[in-house]
Amino acid sequence: MFRIVAAPIEVESLLQVAGRGHGGVATFLGIVRDADGDGRLVRALWYEAHEAMAVREFEAIADEARERFGDVRIAIVHRIGELAVGEVSVAVVAAAKHRAAAFDACRYAIDELKRRAPIWKKERYAQGGELWKSNGEG
Amino acid sequence: MTIRVLAFARLREILQRPELTVQLSESATASDTWAVLVREHPSLAAERATTRFARNGRLVGFDEPLRDGDELALLPPVGGG
Questions:
Q1: Please, what is the angle between helix A99-116 and helix A51-69, to 10°?
Q2: Residues forming beta bridges with residue A84, ordered by sequence position
Q3: Quick one: which H or E segment has residue A48?
Q4: Per DSSP, what are the bridge partners of residue B23?
Q5: What does the alpha-carbon distance between residue A49 and residue A60 come to, in Å, rounded to a whole number?
Q6: Nearest to B8, CA basis, from A38, A61, A127, A120
Q7: Which residues in A lie closer than 8 A to residue B47 (C-beta atoms)?
Q8: How much is the pLDDT for A136?
């Protein structure tokens, strides 16, 4: 399951990616923090995406994870719009026969999503002001 | 020919809209599209080095030739996750 959504992510429904042969399911949740890298208080994050391209990127990332780590099923869902502190911005679930591949695939998927998915984030500060932040910064 | 340009994040803010239509000659490239946009929005020029281009959802180089009806997306440095 690869989606961009505009409403709260239903994490539990993503666990359906696990089949009867999958003994290990690794889950990563990205959550909106209350401060940026410089300690400035964050009120909310705004996310936007080239949705069609992002979903295709998620599929490609899952294909690559399978090539690297073997039989693994992956779900990636990213939320867009304005998110408050504490809300889930992204969920990655990886299911495999054993935990090693599940952990590896989950890690790979979120790392690659952050490196290359066409998704953008703007920090909106408690004291006012807002800034686009790219990965590799704060 | 007619090209649909999609702009995101700070590029969308510079162009003041998420989507616009650009008229170009038949043999135009992504670079030519960028030049048209820079003429109308000079502050766009400073973004060139960090902007990537996608034609119909696939990353392409600056010199990519375009066809009538193409979508050209302007992608600033990403920040997902």
A1: 150
A2: A44
A3: strand A42-49
A4: B2
A5: 17
A6: A120
A7: none
A8: 72
* Distance, CA of B55 to CA of B53 (rounded, Å): 7
A58-70 pLDDT per residue, tens: 999 999 999 999 9
Output the CA angle B15-B75-B73, nearest 5 degrees.
75
Give me the interface pTM, i.e. the ipTM: 0.94
Interchain CB distance below 8 Å, B78 and A89: no
Q: Which two tokens stand for residue B19?
A: 């989507």
Which of A50, A114, A122 is closest, CB to CB, to B81? A114
pTM score: 0.95
Strand partners, B4: B21, B71
Say whether B76 and A117 touch across the interface (CB within 8 A): no
A81-84/B2-7 β-pairing: unpaired
Decide: A94 and A26 in contact? Cβ < 8 Å.
Answer: yes
Farthest CA pair distance, chain B: 39
